[in-house]
Design brief:
The complex is a heterodimer of chains A (623) and B (196).
Chain A lengths: L1 H23 L4 H12 L10 H8 L1 H13 L2 H6 L1 H25 L4 H12 L3 H10 L6 H23 L30 H32 L3 H21 L4 H11 L6 H25 L3 H6 L1 H25 L6 H8 L5 H12 L5 H36 L17 E4 L3 H12 L4 E5 L2 H9 L4 E3 L5 H6 L7 E4 L4 H14 L4 E6 L2 H10 L3 E4 L2 H14 L4 H22 L6 H24 L16
Parallel strand pairs in A: 1-2, 1-4, 2-3, 4-5, 5-6
Chain B lengths: L3 E5 L9 H10 L4 E5 H4 L7 H9 L3 E7 L7 H10 L17 E7 L17 H4 L1 H9 L3 E2 L3 E3 L7 H20 L4 H6 L10
Parallel strand pairs in B: 1-2, 1-3, 3-4, 4-5, 4-6
Helix pairs in contact in B: 1-7
Family (chain A): Belongs to the monovalent cation:proton antiporter 2 (CPA2) transporter (TC 2.A.37) family.
Keywords (chain A): Antiport, Cell inner membrane, Cell membrane, Coiled coil, Ion transport, Membrane, Potassium, Potassium transport, Transmembrane, Transmembrane helix, Transport
Protein name (chain A): Potassium transporter
């Protein structure tokens, strides 16, 4: 008890000390954890001796991370991503495996061993890449989405790789690593069953996951929330994720993949945000631990005995993976600096590599020396990633920034949207419009150009794209071709006019609704071609006037009618005055005349008889 | 004691003389709920659950309004359309109003004479109010003969006062007992309900 407390204290202390320092220095939290791990690991301070079991435990953080990612991805969105997942992910795995296998074979490995090495090293680190991209706020950018697609494909690919690996064991009578294990103890309970039965059981397990998620989770969560015990919800959420991991382990699927599927199933649930909020701290802590354990597992003895060999392998691995990724990024048209974010974020070995290596050791698939070197390679390549990212950020990305006038490309739209409504400018005004549309289940594509503002809106769960709506290409990507309505609610008056003009010209089919600042802006927007214009303060002021009339004793319904009549007249006046914008004298005289008219209309009622019988009850109807 | 709810509908009460006075008379009696629809819902957004629970708390529901085109002002029609829902007021399990009583308090510019087969309006008041009668029937409610004030447009103040006082007395009596079945059937107007 005391020793495990002490261990936990050391982990936390190492993280608490190293991570803020690393963040301050601009190295990112991941590198901080890795350094902390290396320091407390067996090679340096020796506080932590069993890095492997810690890694095994903290891998659960990856499961939680994929669960959280699944929560963000509705099935429809996932379906839209099928091309990048299969195309980009599949090509990355195939090419990287092929090249690494070829090189290993060239250096004298039997083809089976070479293929095993290729498969193991082709995998990238989901934990590392997503953590880094998340920290850089790139998860919604093209680079983040593509990285995710590749990582998801890899997570799926791990399943067949685990199945294939035992077939690649090289039987070598001169091998001194000991007798071949007749049957190594697999985590899977069904490994001994024939293939089709395994397949059936796997399908059954996944169906259970989907069905439970769809139909049982809601009543369960409702029951739990009704108990009004916050910690009970946390416990349930954790229990659920652990249960999924266990179930997947039993049938030999990757727990991370299972958690991801469960997340997707729950993405529509009203408890989604609650789940996120509850799981997130655990995920962050466990991932931190995971990175610490990776740092601690670096074998400095091996590095000191074989520095040249290891250096070459790590350099080779990162270079190969990087250039394949870069080529694919160009092929799949990841824009601008996103190519480099994508390629650097994925150019390392991954945590699944460790898993595969340890099962290779147990299954006598690879010799011990090879496994030690590969383990060190993966660990070092993971440590290198944050450094490479740093380099990328400081040296490569600035060149792209200069070429772009519009600021961070991070939040720009990656793929074409197809909502019937586009809202440009999601401030206080646009939000009310948007919320009403959302409440009616109308999909809306939102554009804004204030990065800080977007960040805040994101935290409230809105998907807001960064962009200057006055650019027709951006409006095109936002789906202006298919949309029916463009709602222009930007604060900037001139910008609004510019947007309306451009949209009217480039997308004449769009109905344009615009928010006007005042009467002059109203006329300008009208001239620019807006179809419907609302003066931003008009209705609110009108309501205030109506309520004041009522407070002074006027009947509520009468006050309402007076306000509406006033509004109608004011609208007519505004349109009439628009013709005399350039003639100041005429404008003023017309405005005065209009003022007299409205008084006459609103007071007309006073002079009619107090009869309600032979006329309509509201005689202002007689014009 | 019968709990009375007056659903009052007048779009321009500020111009009315008779209805205002009638309303005052009703306010003078204790334990009568007066619900001013146009004042509560100037936007016509009727709060249906609130209206329904108000109905449940009362035994006698009175529609008080001027007669517009032989019917009620539009907000009261909207009220009927929304509040008297299937499943609440009628239809399967729609028996919330069963056993209650509905009545109409009408003001009209035309004379009592004009509301007859020979008169300008061709039908009697009771005939013209048949839609309300049938509405009550479908909801399992009884429908009273109307209390009506005729010839309002040139009515002298003192006559208005008389009608208002009469209305006050009728309400007071209704609190304590409803007309018998025979009285309900035979009376053309509740105004003629003979004192015991």
């Amino acid at each position: 008890m005391e020793s495990s407390l002490l261990q936990a204290f050391i982990f936390l202390a190492a993280g608490v000390i190293a991570v803020p320092i690393a963040s301050r220095l601009g190295l990112g939290s991941v590198l901080g954890y890795l350094i902390a791990g290396a320091l407390i690991g067996p090679s340096v301070l020796g506080f932590l001796n069993d890095a492997e079991s810690l890694m095994h435990f903290s891998e659960f953080g990856v499961v939680m991370m994929l669960f959280l990612i699944g929560l963000e991805l509705k099935p429809s969105l996932l379906w839209r991503m099928r091309m990048p997942i299969l195309g980009l992910g599949g090509l990355q795995m195939a090419l990287t495996t092929g090249v690494i296998t070829g090189i290993a074979y060239f250096f004298g490995q039997p083809w089976q061993t070479a293929l095993a090495i290729g498969l193991i090293l082709a995998l990238s680190s989901t934990a590392l890449a997503l953590q880094i991209l998340g920290e850089k706020k790139l998860m919604n950018a093209a680079s983040g989405k593509s990285s995710f697609a590749v990582l998801l494909f890899q997570d799926i690919a791990v399943i067949p790789i685990i199945a294939i690996l035992p077939l690649l064991a090289v039987i070598n009578p001169n091998d001194h690593t000991g007798p071949h294990a007749e049957s190594h103890e697999s985590a899977s309970l069904i490994a001994h069953l024939p293939g089709f039965q395994q397949a059936l059981i796997i399908i059954f397990a996944v169906s259970i996951l989907v069905l439970v998620g769809r139909f049982l989770s809601r009543p369960l969560f409702r029951y739990i929330t009704e108990s009004k015990l916050r910690e009970l919800f946390t416990a349930t959420a954790l229990m659920m994720v652990m249960g999924i991991a266990l179930l997947m382990d039993m049938v030999g699927l990757s727990p991370a993949l299972g958690a991801f599927i469960a997340g997707v199933v729950l993405a529509d649930s009203e408890y989604r945000h609650e789940l996120e909020a509850n799981i997130d701290p655990f995920k962050a802590l466990l991932l931190g631990l995971f990175f610490i354990s990776v740092g601690a597992s670096i074998d400095f003895d091996l590095i000191s005995t074989e520095p040249l060999l290891l250096g070459q392998i790590v350099f080779g691995l990162i270079t190969i993976k990087f250039f394949i990724l870069l080529g694919l990024a160009k092929l799949f048209k990841i824009p601008g600096g996103g190519k480099y974010w994508f390629s650097f974020a994925l150019a390392q070995g991954g945590e699944f590599g460790f898993v595969l290596l340890s099962s290779s050791l147990e299954g006598r698939i690879l010799p011990k020396e090879t496994i030690d070197i590969l383990t060190a390679t993966i660990a070092i390549s993971m440590v290198m990633t944050p450094l490479l990212i740093l380099l990328n950020e400081k040296l490569i990305i600035p060149r792209f920034k200069e070429a772009k006038v519009t600021g961070p490309e991070a939040d720009e739209i990656m793929e074409e949207q197809d909502s019937p409504v586009i809202i440009a400018g999601f401030g206080r005004y646009g939000q009310i419009v948007g919320r009403l549309l959302f409440a009616n289940d109308i999909p809306v594509t939102i554009l804004d150009h204030n990065a800080a503002h977007i960040e805040r809106l994101r935290s409230f769960g809105y998907t807001v794209f960064y962009g200057d709506t006055a650019r027709s290409d951006l409006l095109h990507t936002a789906g202006a071709d298919k949309a029916k309505i463009l709602i222009v609610t930007v604060d900037d008056r001139e910008k609004a006019i510019e947007i309306v003009k451009m949209a009217k010209h480039s997308f004449p089919h769009l109905e344009i609704h615009a928010r006007a600042y005042d009467a002059l802006h109203y006329h300008a927007l009208k001239a620019a071609g807006a179809d419907y214009i609302e003066r931003e303060l008009f209705l609110s002021s009108l309501k205030m006037g109506e309520k004041s009339l009522k407070a002074l004793g006027m009947r509520a319904f009468h006050a309402r009618r007076q306000a509406l009549q006033f509004a109608e007249h004011d609208q007519r006046t505004t349109d009439r005055l628009g013709k005399h914008l350039n003639d100041n004298k005429r404008y003023i005289s017309e405005a005065r005349q209009a003022q007299e008219e409205v008084l006459k209309i609103l007071r007309r009622d006073k002079w009619t008889n107090r009869t309600t019988e032979d006329h309509a009850w509201d005689s202002t109807g007689h014009k | 004691m019968n709990r009375i709810l007056i659903l009052f509908a007048h779009p321009a009460l500020e111009k009315s003389r008779v209805q205002r006075r009638l309303l005052k008379a009703a306010e003078a009696i204790e334990d009568i709920t007066i619900h001013d629809l146009y004042e509560t819902y100037p936007d016509f957004m009727i709060d249906v659950p609130a209206e329904q629970s108000l109905l449940l708390e009362h035994d006698l529901i009175l529609f008080q309004h001027p007669l517009y085109w032989y019917s009620c002002p539009s907000l009261l029609k909207e009220w009927q359309d929304l509040v008297l829902e299937y499943g609440f007021a009628y239809g399967r399990e729609g028996d919330a109003l069963k056993g209650k009583t509905l009545g109409s308090i009408i003001s009209s510019g035309g004379s009592r004479m004009s509301y007859s087969n020979e008169g300008r309006n061709h039908y009697s008041m009771k005939q013209l109010l048949q839609p309300f009668d049938q509405t009550a029937r479908l909801c399992g409610m009884d429908y009273l003969p109307p209390f009506a004030v005729h010839r309002t447009h040139d009515m002298h103040e003192s006559v208005i006062d008389e009608h208002s006082e009469h209305y006050r007395q009728i309400l007071w009596r209704l609190q304590r007992g409803l007309p018998s079945k025979e009285e309900t059937n035979s009376l053309e107007y509740l105004n003629d309900w003979a004192a015991e």
